């Protein structure tokens, strides 16, 4: 068992791999559903697929909400290992499902572990680096999500419709990561120091809703809700929105790739900029830029290069605006309650990830997805900007450990 805080390289690598697994898994279901619907295997119908996708996200949200207090009480390291193990075992069982109902139950259980992974990984990554680099710690770690999504897409193309391989792959990779974590992942130095702090100096998870932190935690929850609503809404419906606008189908689908390429670039840029100029200020600017670009996409663009640039820039600002919120939470809240703050912020954001695709789907069904879909997203970005504009601009109001 490793408790030494002197292994930042292993922490960075393993936290990045954990986020990669989440990106892989969440896209795996989307890649498997078309095959399951086409073959009607396990009795899948559109309604069944919708139910499975929904319970998966509910499981992820519950996992994110519940893991925070556990990490603040028992430590980051053990909770991350158990979360990855839980996800891996249930994911391996999914291909053995006899029907849609069992498939959904297993996805829900896997989602509990999956939802717990990201907030713990982001907490550990933030605490393994100096405070001045906490923004880039989160944004660089989150690039793993998009790498995992790309790997899932490539594997789905390679296996030509064999949906079981996607889940076996995710489960096996997770099980391979667990023993490496057990041997090489150190406990967070900030957690160890917070546990040894005098009783009078401790900040407990329940204090987050007390007068000291209430305003900040509520506003970052609002920002996270808006941010993940944008991320999931765009990733789910962008091709359909562009097709509705009259763009060719091939162009509409390729724009989703352009959007996610922009997301990776934006994550790398946003963290470095926020570390230099302040997370709050940059998050506000990023949401504002996202609102302007989303509104611009409501206009018909006849130049394909210009359209690609607009979508690329949209990806740059939309995705990293959301992740900057996690960076802010890691920077603002003290170590004793940081895991809970990140977990609850992620959980509230998951509610937005459910609402975004739902509302956009309603607009598509009503035949008004273009241009109203982009106006809706632009308004959501403005609300995210307003939320981040009202949070405190200073650092955590309690003593914390700085890792040199």
From TrEMBL:
GO MF entries: carboxylic acid transmembrane transporter activity
A Pfam family the protein falls into: MFS_1
GO cellular component, one term: plasma membrane
Domain called Major facilitator superfamily (MFS) profile: residue spans: 11-396
The keyword Cell membrane is assigned to this record: no
SUPFAM superfamilies: MFS general substrate transporter (SSF103473)
Compartment annotation: Cell membrane
Lineage of the species this protein comes from: Bacteria, Bacillati, Actinomycetota, Actinomycetes, Streptosporangiales
Residues passing through the membrane, by range: 46-67, 79-96, 102-122, 143-160, 166-185, 216-234, 246-270, 282-301, 307-329, 341-366, 372-392
Protein name, UniProt field: MFS transporter
Organism whose genome encodes this protein: Spongiactinospora gelatinilytica
Membrane topology type: Multi-pass membrane protein
Keywords: Membrane, Transmembrane, Transmembrane helix
Stored CDD domains: MFS_PcaK_like (cd17365)
Signal peptide feature range: none
């Amino acid at each position: 068992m490793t408790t030494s805080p002197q292994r930042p390289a292993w922490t960075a690598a393993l936290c990045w791999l954990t986020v990669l697994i989440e990106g892989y898994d969440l896209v795996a279901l989307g890649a498997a559903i078309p095959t399951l619907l086409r073959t009607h295997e396990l009795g899948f119908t559109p309604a069944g697929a919708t139910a499975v996708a929904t319970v998966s996200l509910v499981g992820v949200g519950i996992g994110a909400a519940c893991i925070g207090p556990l990490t603040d009480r028992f430590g980051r390291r053990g909770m991350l290992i158990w979360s990855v193990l839980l996800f891996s075992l249930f994911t391996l069982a999914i291909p053995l499902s006899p029907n849609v109902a069992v498939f959904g139950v297993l996805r829900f259980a896997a989602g509990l572990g999956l939802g717990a992974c990201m907030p713990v990984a982001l907490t550990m990554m933030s605490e393994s680096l100096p405070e001045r680099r906490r923004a880039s710690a989160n944004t660089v770690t989150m690039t793993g999500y998009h790498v995992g999504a790309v790997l899932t897409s490539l594997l789905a193309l390679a296996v030509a419709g064999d949906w079981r391989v996607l889940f076996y792959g995710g489960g096996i990779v997770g099980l391979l990561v667990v023993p490496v974590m057990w041997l090489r992942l150190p406990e967070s130095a900030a957690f160890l120091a917070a546990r040894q702090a005098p009783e009078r100096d401790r900040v407990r998870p329940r204090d987050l809703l007390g007068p000291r932190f209430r305003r900040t935690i509520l506003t970052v929850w609002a920002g996270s809700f808006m941010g993940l609503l944008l991320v999931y809404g765009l990733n789910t419906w962008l091709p359909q929105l562009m097709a509705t606008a009259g763009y060719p189908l091939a162009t509409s689908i390729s724009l989703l790739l352009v959007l996610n390429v922009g997301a990776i670039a934006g994550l790398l840029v946003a963290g470095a900029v926020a570390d230099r100029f302040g997370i709050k200020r940059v998050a506000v600017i990023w949401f504002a830029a996202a609102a302007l670009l989303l509104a611009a996409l409501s206009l018909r663009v006849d130049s394909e290069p210009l359209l690609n640039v607009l979508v690329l820039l949209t990806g740059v600002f939309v995705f990293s605006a959301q992740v900057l919120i996690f960076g802010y939470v890691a920077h603002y809240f003290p170590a004793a309650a940081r895991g809970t703050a990140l977990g609850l912020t992620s959980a509230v954001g998951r509610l937005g990830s459910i609402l975004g695709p739902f509302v956009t789907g309603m607009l598509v069904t009503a035949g008004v997805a273009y241009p109203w879909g982009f106006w809706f997203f632009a308004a959501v970005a403005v609300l995210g900007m307003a939320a981040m504009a009202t949070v405190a601009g200073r650092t955590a109001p309690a003593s914390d450990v700085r890792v040199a």
